[in-house]
Amino acid sequence: MPFGDMVKSRKSLLSAGMIAGASLLLAVPAAPAFAEGGETITVELNGAETVSDACRATFVVRNGLSTAIDELGLEIVVFDEKGGVSDMTALNLGAMPSGKTRVLRFRVAKRGCDGVSSLLINDVRACKGEGLDPAVCLSRLKTSSRIDIGLGL
């Protein structure tokens, strides 16, 4: 094959490859874009009570994202009155439609609530939904507490 024909053939292959690559990019659905700072998952520690020598916490959770969360799970660390780690637990918050607020109760410590100084959302264990993964959900979390026990990230 003459050199000129080889160059034309390589250019044709390159052009065909670029067109095929571009069409693949167009076929992949885009993940939802979350407005910077606007869309959040809020977790509020709303109450806590001692039940059978364990601390049961009440959380108010709101999905402020524009997409539904199919599954949300958090890892919680419990700090005692001296600031030491006393317990770790996993919370399964389940599915949450976009805009949904849910009140949930969980046993978070194997001690009375008077021995708990704060809770920490240590990690997002699960976050499933369109364009969601644990890292995205962690970046969208906002916490607050209405009681003396703190809640932080």
Comma- or semicolon-separated keywords:
alpha/beta, 153 residues, four-stranded mixed beta sheet, 2 helices, elongated
Can you describe this structure?
- The structure is a single chain.
- The chain is α/β, with parallel strands linked by helices and 153 residues long.
- It has helices at residues 3-27, 134-140; strands spanning 41-51, 54-63, 69-80, 85-96, 101-109, 116-128, 141-145, 150-152.
- A hairpin with a 4-residue loop joins β3 (69-80) and β4 (85-96).
- The radius of gyration is 24 Å and the shape is elongated.
- It starts with a helix and ends with a strand.
- Residues 22-31 have low confidence and may be disordered.
Strand content: over 45%
Low-pLDDT regions: 22-31
Tally of helical segments: 2
Estimate the mean pLDDT confidence.
Answer: 85
Helix fraction, binned, reads 10-25%
Molecular shape? elongated
Ends apart, CA distance between termini: 66 Å
The largest β sheet comes out as: 4 strands, mixed
Strands side by side in the biggest sheet: 5-2-1-7
